[in-house]
Amino acid sequence: MAMLPYSKLKHSSRHILSFGIVLILTFVFNPRAHASTECKTLHTAGAQQWFPYAFNEFEGRLKATGIAFDVLSLLARDLGVTLKIETGLPWKRIESKLDAGELDILAGNYWNQARSRKWLITAPFAAEEVYVVLSPSLSQTRGTDLSLNALAQYIGVMPRGISLGEKFDSIKSNLNIIEVKDHDKMYEMMRRHRADYAVSPQSAALSHLNDPENDGMRISQSPISSNNVHFAISAKSKCASLFPEFNQALSARFKDGSIKQIIDTYDLTR
What we know:
Blueprint: H1 6-29, H2 31-37, E1 41-45, E2 49-50, E3 54-58, E4 62-65, H3 67-79, E5 82-85, H4 91-100, E6 105-110, H5 113-118, E7 119-121, E8 126-134, H6 136-142, H7 148-151, E9 155-159, H8 166-171, E10 176-180, H9 183-191, E11 197-201, H10 202-209, E12 218-219, E13 225-234, H11 243-255, H12 258-264
């Protein structure tokens, strides 16, 4: 077999070495390169009754759906990773699995300081307001223009273990709030006269107020807080390296109108 002249072999070796260095640098500094070798699948979960962002439907089997999952599915395709959704998990279990890196990304949450210290909170993909839903008796006697201070003398309910945003979290201890299993339980307690009001995101509240069983309940005139809706990536996940690229993909989908199209497919007053 003919040998390459030394001068050409030396040049070829330098070329191979240079190409190898380029590949190594590309792998080290390109998040997408990390994603292709480390993060093949994004394991996610979300709330079970947070319409329209993350909620469960039963179509022969339990199915997680909502704006957060639709947006996340789109971004997973953009990033070239598979999305695997876990259903039926209580919120506290979701948080503990995210803390441990057993879930890679949370499909929808509000920002607060505690979460920002332990999770990678993405740029927001939506915003919504939090309202008070008043029982029939309270709305009749006090109207719908109540301050948070005025609510201190009444019994309120909210879903267990969740955050309703930094503003409400900071004053919750001043209120007589009972935390219950889910949104359905909140409205059941008001129907049974065991609670005077519930605290809820606006869209979820309107969804329940359309139920004839909740006739007479009223939503407050003004929101008690306004929050952005984010994704949260586990700091212990092998997909944490996707964080910069995830935000870039999210920004791109905002600019091309894809996220607005997803949001517009949901009847926010259903």
